[in-house]
UniProtKB/TrEMBL annotation:
Belongs to the trimethylamine methyltransferase family. This is Methyltransferase. GO terms for molecular function: methyltransferase activity. Its EC number is 2.1.1.-. It comes from Mesorhizobium australafricanum. Transmembrane segments: none annotated. Gene3D superfamilies: Trimethylamine methyltransferase-like. Keywords: Methyltransferase, Transferase. GO terms for biological process: methylation.
Amino acid sequence: MNDTSRRRRQRTGSVAVQRRWRKLRYAFAPIEPMSPNEIELVHRSAMSVLEEIGMRIQDGQARSILRDAGFRVDEPAEHVFFDAERVMELVAKAPSIATVRGLDPAKRVVMGKGHFALTAVGGPPFVSDLENGRRYGTFEDQTNFLKLTAQSDLLQIMGGTCVEASDLPAETRYLDYYLACCSLSDKPWKPLTIGHHRARDAIEMAKLWYGETEDQLAADPVFFLNTNTNTPLVLDRDIAQGVIEYARLGQPITVTPFALAGAMAPASVAGALVLQTAETLACCALVQSVRPGAPYIYGAFICNADMRTGSPAFGTPEYTFGAQASGQMARFYGLPWRSSNVNASNAPDAQAAYESMMSLWGAMTGQASVFNHGAGWLEGGLVGSYEKFILDLEMLGMMVACQTPPAITEAEIGMESIREVGPGGHFFGTGHTMERYKTAFYAPLVSDWSNFENWQDRGSLNATQRAAKVCKDMLAAYEPPPLDPAKIEALEDFVARRKREIVAARDL
């Protein structure tokens, strides 16, 4: 470590420890609010939806694949009807664990069977911070979020575009995003699933980045893919194309319905759960029809609409129950499952925090296998917030710490320390305390537990203001990982060539 690196790490304090790699596992049994009879009712109802109502699949290739797999297709209406028995045969082919790896062999992520992974926010068009306010996202903002993700020991998967780079051409900016994922971190990354060409370009760049063939990438996956249906009961053409391309390469895919109860789903958690299950299992059937045994992750995103405004209401009790129940359904099918850390607040305030904690509590106690939008989500997903990103790291750190219960042993009890202090003393200076004071308790990233006078002397900063400072410190401390310059040059050449080709095709 050079002197500059040492000074940066000293200056950022607790941020410096964010470099180590964690393997995340649950320590306790999940909360399961539904009875076996209720699970069976949801399953039967979802199968009835698929058999009797079906889904509109807007991509002709996807319909052809499903027809060949044994499903009835109404071609003029783009409608596919899914036989329940055949769906279950295909779902049974998907594994119960999905893994992805980074360029660093140690950076391997496991999802399912009690293992879980965390990712950052993905996709908002806007960005906000205390200094500059709410604005359209730029490529600089996008790379800043990637740098923050790269430094976090909690966020194992890069990307999801973080925020849109609105200052770059819409048709080619995904290439800049892919290149940034490769050049700023050695963690696995999350490409886009919209259209054949975006998926194909991600695969070609992965071949260059890892120096491997497609068969090698398929044997040991490198991408986590998250995409969506158009609820209710529609799979978009471009989304289907991306799903098929990644499925052929055997990469872990989650297709997530947006089951907004009262708007895009029935006005009940039960109805939303049925619709969600039907849609994601139909997409699982598509993936397994393309490549049997490809990893598939049950997509879950149940929330309720605020019936006064029609807006999504995140972090509600309904969201929490929906997450816990989604976990039960995923386990019923033997699949890993995806949830999120979401809120509907317009500012990184108390509402954002308590709604996020409700979301996280539902997902953690339901034992989600992967958290999409784990850090930085604000305003119902329209905004990527710098301060909320840091506050989320604080909340995620606490939730993860709760999965490592404290040891209850004679040494930890410290009877000698209790005898030493006796009645009326204190434990600050005992040997038992001195052995543990650096590691005994959770080390906060943002929280300030000092008294009022000390807090006032340090500027009376609230949690959001402290988060803004931590964010700036982390960005100042960022250092890229050691990467092969020849690989980066090859990726840059690929991106430049593809941009020329895309622009030329557009101008024809």
